[in-house]
Q: What sequence folds into this?
C-alpha cells in the first residue's frame, strides 16, 4: 500500500495536536501560581489575609512568627489569636 499525501497530512495534524495539548499542560502549571496572585479577591482570587506562598522569604518570616506565637501563653497572644464569635442564627419562623 503506497503512502499518500493524505496519510502524511493526517499524521502531521495528529502530531501537531498532541504536542500542542501537551504544551498547554506545562504552561498552565507554571502560570496558575502567578495568575492567582493578581486576580482580585472579589473575582475569586486570594483573600487579603492569605499566608504567603511557600518558598518565598515572606513565607519563612511568616512561619517564624507563627511558631513564636504558638509558643507564647494564650493570655499574651493578643486579640488576633482569639477565635471569632459564631454568628447568631436567624430563625425565619419567628
A:
Amino acid at each position: 500500500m503506497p503512502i499518500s499525501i493524505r496519510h502524511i497530512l493526517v499524521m502531521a495534524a495528529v502530531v501537531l495536536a498532541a504536542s500542542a495539548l501537551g504544551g498547554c499542560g506545562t504552561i498552565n502549571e507554571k502560570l496558575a501560581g502567578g495568575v492567582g496572585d493578581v486576580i482580585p479577591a472579589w473575582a475569586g482570587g486570594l483573600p487579603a489575609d492569605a499566608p504567603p506562598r511557600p518558598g518565598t522569604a515572606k513565607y519563612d518570616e511568616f512561619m517564624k512568627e507563627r511558631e513564636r506565637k504558638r509558643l507564647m501563653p494564650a493570655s499574651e497572644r493578643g486579640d488576633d489569636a482569639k477565635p471569632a464569635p459564631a454568628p447568631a442564627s436567624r430563625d425565619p419562623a419567628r
